[in-house]
Design a protein that fits this description.
The structure holds 2 protein chains of 2 kinds. Helices cover 76% and strands 0% of the residues of chain A. Chain A has helices at 2-9, 17-36, 46-58, 62-89, 97-105, 115-122, 125-150, 154-163, 167-176, 180-203, 211-220, 224-252, 254-259. The mean pLDDT of chain A is 91. By secondary structure, chain B is an alpha/beta fold. Classes of the chains: A mainly alpha, B alpha/beta.
């Protein structure tokens, strides 16, 4: 036990799975204690939040709202992955690099000013929300993934050339298959970016619902217990998707975990 | 017939006046040499050729030109019958043994076959044979990250042998090996070389002793120097040692031979001046 505590407290030490779980539990407990004993009276207590959650779920249709949001996020995610991977892989073609770099730079733009042109392009409603979310995620995804492709060591291309592979085969093996684990990893991060944008995007057209619209409506009426209850739902859904993506990565790319050095 | 009287056969590789500049600096200056088939009565005799030279002199650059990865600014490379080296006839085992990290050992070998026009079944069969020969069949389903350094090296060599290549280039195959592993690698190189009469393994190394122990011919690549000792840009072949002619090849007791030790000293001495 003493060894575990020392390993957990000193830098660059490896810890076992049990210690890792214990550390997570300890931090969660610390966070809950901070919440329970918070000196701010305006913050809802855990009991109030869980009561609000129960009310939202059983009486005010939180379930269908979650479904609406999940559909929106997954739709945007599929488009983001398709567009961003195509752009990132295109960096192997010199002529495409300026275009990819331009897309990467667009990540500095906020979505607010883009609502008008996107409304003109999509006609508003659900397509507008998908387009905005896709734009927001794709700029970050392309930035990260294009860098992964550009960082592939020259030796990997040369190795395949010496084996006699065609350039198309090299593109498939080295660029597409060789970076699949990184692509999944970046997709995982982008799901989180998508969730962080959801309130803003769903706020554009609240009539269609979604947890983003719901949270904005509760916030407008200063129902803080409901707001925090929805935040907890968003957090849990995000974590669930994150875990799912992690499981998919382990299934499709078992080699990636073999290369990681655990500390 | 003594070994020095052994006939040498057709030219397998001719490097003719090859020059290379990088960023305006002359790296290789009219490098010229040739490798001929070694012939022994009733024996399949491939050969190992070493390219020795100080760090940064351009050895790896020369290998990359031979592999077709870089194009020289001048000069010509030809194979048997004075024809250009056919595409796919040169293998290259890189210094850090890159393998496809997302493919198993078996798949890495199969890909080497299918890239060269073999069907998937042919490549699989050949890959299985090679894994058995290299004592790696129990590692066929492993990913490269699960292999030791020595196993990785053997897989990288096997990968180049799935489709026969007359010339196999190896960049620093002896670096970072303990004595036992070094002996294993040397034995492996000789075994691979003698798999086919026209096989040539060209090794780039700093390890003079290991090079002398495995080689039939040693080429020294180096730069000339000004009288004040500063090197003149542009490396060229500064010496050729025919170890077969000197009776220092194809025997087990090389390290006990005074001629071997003398040659080792001589090459070490020349090394400092290149």
């Amino acid at each position: 036990m003493r060894h575990r505590i020392v390993a957990a407290l000193l830098p660059n030490r490896a810890i076992d799975r049990t210690t890792a779980l214990l550390l997570v539990a300890a931090w969660v407990l610390a966070a809950l204690l901070c919440w329970v004993f918070s000196p701010f009276a305006t913050l809802p207590t855990p009991a109030e939040v869980f009561a609000a959650l129960s009310d939202l779920w059983w009486r005010r249709g939180l379930g269908p709202e979650v479904g609406t949001t999940l559909k929106l996020i997954l739709h945007a995610l599929v488009l983001t992955v398709a567009i961003s991977l195509a752009l990132s892989y295109a960096t192997v073609i010199a002529a495409c690099r300026p275009l990819v770099e331009a897309v990467c730079k667009l990540r500095f733009l906020g979505l607010t000013g883009l609502i008008f042109p996107f409304t003109l392009l999509t006609g508003g409603g659900y397509p507008l929300k998908v387009a905005l979310l896709t734009f927001g995620m794709a700029t970050f995804f392309t930035t990260a993934m294009a860098q992964v492709v550009m960082d592939i060591p020259q030796e990997r291309f040369d190795h395949m050339r010496v084996l006699g592979a065609s350039e198309a085969r090299i593109l498939w093996e080295v660029v597409v298959r060789g970076t699949l684990d990184r692509a999944l990893d970046i997709t995982r991060q982008n799901v989180a970016i998508g969730w962080s944008m959801i309130t803003m995007v769903e706020g554009i057209s609240r009539a269609e619902g979604g947890v983003g619209a719901l949270i904005l409506n509760q916030n407008k009426h200063f129902r803080l217990a409901e707001v925090y209850a929805i935040l907890i739902v968003i957090l849990l859904l995000g974590l669930l998707m994150d875990y799912g993506m992690g499981a998919l990565e382990r299934l499709l790319c078992p080699y990636a975990h073999l290369e990681r050095v655990r500390r | 017939m003594s070994v020095s009287e052994m006939p040498s056969g057709q030219v397998l590789l001719r490097v003719d006046e090859v020059s290379l500049r990088l960023g305006g600096t002359l790296i290789l200056d009219r490098v010229t040499f040739e490798v001929r088939d070694r012939i022994r009565q009733d024996q399949v005799t491939g050969q190992v050729v070493s390219l020795l030279g100080p760090s940064g002199v351009g050895k790896t650059r020369l290998l990359r030109i031979l592999a077709g990865l870089d194009t020289p600014d001048a000069g010509r490379l030809t194979g048997p019958d004075n024809r250009p080296l056919p595409p796919g006839s040169v293998g290259f085992v890189f210094q850090h043994y890159p393998l496809l990290r997302h493919r198993t050992v078996l798949e890495n070998l199969i890909i080497a076959g299918t890239c060269n026009g073999m069907t998937h079944d042919e490549a699989r069969q050949r890959a299985r044979q090679l894994l058995q020969r290299f004592q790696l069949d129990h590692r066929s389903s492993f990913y490269p990250a699960q292999l030791s350094g020595g196993q990785r090296q053997r897989v990288a060599i096997a990968q180049q042998l799935v489709r026969h290549k007359g010339l196999l280039l190896m960049d620093e195959p002896f670096s970072g090996l303990d004595p036992a592993a070094l002996e294993d690698v040397m034995r492996l190189l000789i075994e691979v070389a003698h798999m086919h009469e026209l096989n040539t393994i060209m090794v780039v190394t700093h390890d003079i002793r290991a090079a002398l122990l495995v080689s039939d011919t040693v080429f020294m690549l180096g730069r000339d120097r000004h009288p004040d000792g500063t090197p003149i840009p542009g490396a060229r072949i500064q010496g050729v040692y025919d170890l077969v002619a000197r009776g220092l090849a194809w025997r087990e007791d090389l390290e006990d031979q005074p001629a071997f030790l003398q040659l080792e000293r001589e090459i070490k001495g020349r090394f400092r001046s290149l």
